[in-house]
Amino acid sequence: MIGKRILIGAACLMAMQGAMAQVDGVTGTSVQTANTSCCKGKKQCCNTPAEQLKVRLQKLLNRGIMLGHQDDPVYGTTWKWDEGKSDVFLTTGDYPAVMGFDLGKIELDSKENLDGVSFDRMRKEIIAQNERGGIVTLSWHPWNPVTGENAWDPKGDAVAAILDGGAQQQKFDGWLKKVSDFILSLKTNDGKLVPVIFRPWHEMNGGWFWWGASSCTPAQYNQLYVKTLNILTKAGCNNIVWAWSPNLSDEKTVEKFLERFPGEKYVDMLGVDVYEFDNNDANYQQNLAATLDVLMEAAKKVGKIPALTETGCRGIASKKDWFTQTLWPVLQKYQLSYVLFWRNAWDKPQEEAYLPGVGDGAIIDDFKAFKKEKKVLFAKDIVKVKK
């Protein structure tokens, strides 16, 4: 029995090392993932859904950049709540390799999230994406636990209130229980947990969220992130790959980028959020390149998988060649895990739609051309790449 355990452990270690010692396409250095597994030291270490997904992400990193889309299968620019629809599928014939969903309002016992998506429907679509071989990422915009307003209310010293000993600690611990219950409910037909990338407390370097730079110290923020990880891990969520992503910053240095980084052992993926809100393609290219340079250097320093965790061009329907002439010339220079475009809001498509929808004209053909790039990966491109 001892000999068998040693052999299994050695095989596990070799598999993990082989999969994770990949070469960064820009820096030429090895990218390692953090050991955030909740089964350290056990022979089944490689068999948790999270560890399997991390190995798969490392393999896919050498294949190309996965395309992702927020709320892709639940609504689009011209439709909402229809089952079997997807703006990406309707315009290209394939689903995104990565789908994003948000857990905001789950903490309030709401049946729907902050964008009106039923949590039951969300669960169904997450499982369906897993079954088609795709990957899922979850964000969370929880309401302010002090003021009772939404996540974009930075008032009330909320982070201090929910840390251990704070006035709202018990409330927040209950919120984390609701999050863990949902994540643990993501199961395949044979009862296996679906792995997810979880990206809480993002854009923490901005001042618009109650967990942002204007509302808490770096130490308080780090305590919040680690507390979240510890409670979800203790609850049995061994299907979480942990992601951390600041927003585009004016001060583009690694030191500033990592100012609120919670620590190498708590994070598996390093991301950044960069948008084009001003209809200035050249400015977006400049910001994106400078920010991705910093991301890649930071990812090298802390040994994490890099990703462009949110992006998009506001008013994409009016563009003609944004994907092939603005985005791809920059993106192709970097070895990123995925690029996630934000949602196509059915109720305000001109203000908040970041991928083409049916009837959007020339940009659809450009998006199809972008899809044909060898290093751009959709769902069908990754289905055969297993853990």
Automatic annotation (TrEMBL):
Q: Where is the GH26 domain?
A: 48-380
Q: Which GO terms of type biological process are on file?
A: substituted mannan metabolic process
Q: Which UniProt keywords are given for this protein, alphabetically ordered?
A: Glycosidase, Hydrolase, Signal
Q: Does the keyword Hydrolase apply?
A: yes
Q: Where is this site: Plays an important role in maintaining the position of the catalytic nucleophile?
A: H202
PANTHER family given for it?
GH26 DOMAIN-CONTAINING PROTEIN-RELATED, MANNAN ENDO-1,4-BETA-MANNOSIDASE E-RELATED
Family to which this protein belongs: Belongs to the glycosyl hydrolase 26 family.
Q: What's the protein name? A: Glycoside hydrolase family 26 protein
Q: What is the species listed in this Swiss-Prot or TrEMBL entry? A: Segatella copri
